[in-house]
Amino acid sequence: AQRVTQPEKLLSVFKGAPVELKCNYSYSGSPELFWYVQYSRQRLQLLLRHISRESIKGFTADLNKGETSFHLKKPFAQEEDSAMYYCALSDQGAQKLVFGQGTRLTINP
Amino acid sequence: ETGVTQSPTHLIKTRGQQVTLRCSSQSGHNTVSWYQQALGQGPQFIFQYYREEENGRGNFPPRFSGLQFPNYSSELNVNALELDDSALYLCASSSGQRNEKLFFGSGTQLSVL
């Protein structure tokens, strides 16, 4: 069965410090991995997807198939990064996204 | 271009009742997916509609049903409400069947008493 695990429900770091939000998945095929973010009083929105290999708002995520991980990283956290972050996977061509439980990131000034 | 809109924003029902939630997809999108998000959990896939046909379903009982209309708006119907149905119901639209980028609505908060 497809599963996404985000081991940290809460993560708090200081402004300017590096950030890493962990995501592990279990899936036997070739999944597509995503990070979605929800800022305060805003809708859930796509942050980035692994096949795009892009950096959005300074965040990057590398798919590690050996470790079945898709950790989200940013070298220098900013206060506006405070939000709820969800890791999600989808089978290629499948209709559904499987979400993790989410990590609430708080950036302290 | 208008985003995904959902109505109502909040709803209170009692156990055993039926409820209909509505979603208007973003302009140009022909696919609508519904997710249930319980408190403290990530969204869980209910089903997807593509061009008015159900196109994939998650692990939800048949009392969860839906419709998609020719203008690609959609309804989620839940019969025989149970207390555990209390959750935030999210609608997401996209262009095409694959989950390349979902645009979410603000959700409908359903409370079952």
List the keywords.
heterodimer; A: 109 residues; mainly beta; six-stranded mixed beta sheet; three-stranded antiparallel beta sheet; B: 113 residues; seven-stranded mixed beta sheet; four-stranded antiparallel beta sheet; 11 strands
Can you describe what's shown?
The complex is a heterodimer of chains A (109) and B (113). In chain A, a hairpin with a 6-residue loop joins β9 (83-91) and β10. Chain A is mainly beta. Chain A is built from no helices and 11 strands. The mean pLDDT of chain A is 92. In chain A, the strands form 3 sheets. In chain A, strands 2, 5, 6, 9, 10 and 11 form a 6-stranded mixed beta sheet that branches. Chain A has a 3-stranded antiparallel beta sheet with strand order 3-8-7, with no helix packed on it. A two-stranded antiparallel ribbon of chain A has the order 1-4. Chain B is mainly β and 113 residues long. Helices cover 0% and strands 50% of the residues of chain B. Chain B is built from no helices and 11 strands. Chain B has strands spanning 5-7, 10-13, 19-24, 31-37, 44-50, 53-57, 64-68, 74-78, 87-94, 103-104, 108-112. The radius of gyration of chain B is 13 Å and the shape is globular. The model of chain B has no long low-confidence stretch (mean pLDDT 93). Classes of the chains: A mainly beta (109), B mainly beta (113). The A-B interface holds A 4, 9, 32, 34, 43-46, 49, 86, 88, 90, 92-102 and B 3-4, 33, 35, 40-45, 48, 50, 55-56, 58, 90, 97-106.
